[in-house]
């Protein structure tokens, strides 16, 4: 699916800290231009469709951006489970520095505009490792899997690696509509509010933040 118009992205990072000066490419099907706000919290006022926040510790800046209700993708070198769960559960995508390509970045941007939150492979691995460390993590994940059909389990495995409905459909040779129908059923079975909540439940990471 192509975007009906090319998207504008606000880069919330220091001027000399962006490693992709040639992104977006002229033939990028989704992203048309980038703007550079003076500070992360000003990105929400930059008339952008999505904000990319690149920093060491995203927590403080994210609080400002979440208050502005703008889709956010975090790029950070941090790989610890607690940081990634906090960011992802808040609704932002998370790409570990050096663990993504510009194609994935463009896909994450267009996904963010429709409520899909991407995780890079290292971020997924951190969530899975956190779930394995929990005493009841394995049992909880098995109970979740028993609620879903084999096809639904396939879809959740792909969703938890950061793929969107269109990409999942291509992998499984299903139409995007069929994938979205399956996702709606999955959310109902898992009592999840959307893809972020479903992935956290699937990976067993939701209890990390519970008291």
Describe this structure in words.
The protein has 211 residues and is an alpha/beta fold. Helices cover 45% and strands 12% of the residues. The protein has a five-stranded parallel sheet, with helices on both faces. Strand 3, helix 1 and strand 4 (72-76) form a beta-alpha-beta unit. It is globular and about 50 Å long. The termini are far apart. Mean pLDDT is 82; it is low at 207-211.
Give the structure's gist in a few sentences.
This protein is an alpha/beta fold. It has helices at 59-67, 81-89, 102-112, 121-133, 137-147, 150-159, 165-172, 176-190, 195-203, and strands spanning 7-12, 31-35, 50-54, 72-76, 93-96. Helix 1 (59-67) links the parallel strand 3 and strand 4 (72-76).
Strand elements, count: 5
Structural class: alpha/beta
- How many helical elements? 9
Query: Portion of residues in helices?
Result: 40-55%
What summary fits the major beta sheet?
Answer: 5 strands, parallel
> In sequence order, what are the helices and strands, one letter per element?
EEEHEHEHHHHHHH
- Summarize model confidence as the mean pLDDT: 82
Q: How is the largest sheet built, in terms of strand order? A: 2-1-3-4-5
Runs in which pLDDT lies below 50 for 5 or more consecutive residues are 207-211
β-sheet strand percentage: 5-15%
User: Which word captures the global form?
Assistant: globular
Our measurement of the CA-to-CA distance between the termini, rounded to an integer number of angstroms, reads 41 Å
């Amino acid at each position: 699916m192509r975007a009906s118009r090319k998207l504008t992205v606000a880069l919330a990072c220091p001027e000399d800290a962006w490693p992709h000066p040639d992104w977006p490419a002229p033939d990028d099907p989704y992203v048309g231009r980038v703007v550079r706000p003076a500070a992360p919290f000003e990105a929400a006022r930059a008339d952008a469709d999505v904000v990319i926040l690149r920093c060491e510790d995203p927590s403080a800046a994210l609080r400002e951006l979440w208050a502005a209700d703008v889709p956010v993708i975090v790029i950070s070198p941090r790989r610890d489970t607690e940081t990634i769960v906090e960011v992802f559960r808040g609704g932002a995508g998370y790409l570990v520095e050096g663990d993504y390509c510009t194609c994935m970045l463009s896909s994450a941007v267009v996904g963010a505009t429709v409520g899909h939150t991407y995780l890079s492979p290292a971020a997924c691995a951190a969530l899975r490792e956190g779930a394995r460390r929990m005493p009841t993590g394995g049992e909880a994940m098995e109970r979740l899997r028993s609620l879903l059909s084999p096809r639904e389990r396939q879809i959740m495995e792909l969703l938890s690696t950061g793929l969107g409905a269109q990409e999942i459909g291509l992998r499984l040779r299903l139409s995007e509509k069929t994938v979205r129908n399956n996702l709606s059923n999955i959310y109902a079975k898992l009592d999840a509010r959307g893809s972020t909540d479903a992935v956290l439940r699937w990976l067993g990471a939701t209890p990390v933040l519970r008291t």
